[in-house]
Amino acid sequence: MTGVPSGAPKKSLKRAKRESRAEHVPEKKKACWGILTSQGSWADCSPLHEAASQGRLLALHTLLAQGYHTNIVTIDHVTPLHEACLSGHVACVRALINAGANVNAATIDGATPLYNCCTSGSVGCIELLLQHGALTHMPLTYFPSALHEACKRGNSQCVESLLSHGADPDYKVSHLGSPLYMSCLHSQTTCSEILLHRGASVNVGREGDSPLHAAVRQDSVGQVSLLLDYGADVNIRDTNNQRPVELAFPGGKLHQLLMTFEVSPRSLCQLCRIQIRTIIGRSRLKLLPNLPLPPTLTNFLDYA
After folding, report:
1. With 80 as the cut, is the pLDDT of residue 269 above it?
2. pTM
3. Which one of 111, 202, 239, 303 counts the least CB within 10 Å of its CB?
4. Per residue in 59-95, is it b (16+ CB within 10 Å) or e — as a string?
């Protein structure tokens, strides 16, 4: 570990006690420490990491003044900023950034402070990071995606914040698929609605699997209705050559919904709305209110 001041004790009694009880941390607590439990390994965490994690702002300032480096890392490359973001401590995040913390630091698992914010659901921390140069998407596509993490956990305000700062709603990670697919896979209807409203492609999923396939497997009537409203293709086939209706429980509510939809094609109004939004393009959807149209028509196009 680097960045420890020369006069600092090698290991305080308090830290030794903390390490001795690390083995007894509940699994639920470990699970919230980041992408892997490696972020929960406190064996080589510094006092700065501990202060950031616990939100002890005064202790944080004191340690920085004593010479602890703001970007000090553990063996897994976890920084104090990672810990502050994972616990949602806005004041500590601000203090670390002001002290020169790297907002795009990545752990050995590829988790960034922004990713950890989406794990904790802290919009305040997200805004701070983005204002100071945090990347919504990392250059290496196999790194964990903050947007996918927010969609998985249903942190809709985090999704809104990331999209408002330019995150791509169709950003794909090879093993996860699109953010919309992730939200459908975890039955996060509010996140799906935000993504679709922002222009996410309704049929882009993971490999041959569409978001509609994922929503049907979760037996989520709300998700399926939403996807159909935004133009989901009911005839698309997954890697097993199955259509969404073939995955629904026979005779169930979802199966009946899909069967009814197949024999009752979309109305002309729905088709026009989908086509107009496609022509306008994702990047210009926010300009819909500026079109010289009656408010009723504008609201219809905007799904308001």
Report:
1. yes
2. 0.84
3. 239
4. bbeebbeeebbbbbbbebbbbbbbbbbbbbbbebbbb
